[in-house]
Design brief:
The protein is α+β, with helices and mostly antiparallel strands and 124 residues long. The chain is built from 5 helices and 6 strands. It has one domain. It has a 3-stranded antiparallel sheet with strand order 1-6-5. 18% of the residues are buried. Bound molecules: zinc ion (ZN). Zinc ion binds next to loops. The site of zinc ion has 7 residues, from loops.
Amino acid sequence: MIKRGTEEWKTFISRLDQIKTKSNREVLCIKCWQMLNCKQKIKHLKAFDHKSYLLTSTQYASEMKISELAQGYNKLVTKADGSEYIISPFTPVNLPQLNKSEIDTKLEDGTHSDQHDTPPGTKR
Ligand SMILES: [Zn+2]
């Protein structure tokens, strides 16, 4: 989970912001709380009937929107001390690259740094 106001949170929000600048934008399945790129989306819709749960970046990609969505779908946790935590819809980055598809790997490329001079997934 990501605590609001931390560096991790800022990275998370800037990652959302970056999605809006890309041509192949991820969609968010609010049912699964999972960010999906183009290929993942196609696979996802084959596997699940979640078309009506998919949100485009204009619907989720801002701090306010993602917070509201998270709240609405119980992905935002408020602790007794008032601190808020959001469950990241992005695929965890610390997994070893076992049998994961390279699609997932690409999705995770931009997470560990803020540089966006070479965004992943731009090659066609
Ligand atoms: Zn889904």
